[in-house]
């Protein structure tokens, strides 16, 4: 009885964590695309930001979003 509850609890935690990781990955990768392609997408508020900062922040979002995607797909919690 106790083991069934623990297994169900662990499965629920894994599903919740996977969903969170995949959602954050999508948001971060989307932010990376917006920051890196701001000039091509003609997003005026972002074009005014220093290009070094835009590319640096976009790269950080791309790397961390890729990590979150990997962790969400791997599912080892």
In short:
By secondary structure, the chain is mainly α.
Question: What characteristics describe this protein?
Answer:
77 residues, mainly alpha, 4 helices, 87% helix, rod-shaped
Provide the fold topology:
Elements: H1 2-36, H2 38-41, H3 44-47, H4 51-74
The radius of gyration over CA amounts to 18 Å
pLDDT averaged residue by residue: 92
Largest sheet: none
Q: How far apart are the first and last residues' alpha carbons, in Å? A: 23 Å
Helix content: over 70%
**Binned strand content:** under 5%
Order of helices and strands: HHHH
Can you tell me the number of structural domains?
1
Please tally the β strands and state the result: 0
Summing up helix and strand content along with how strands pair, one would put the structural category as mainly alpha
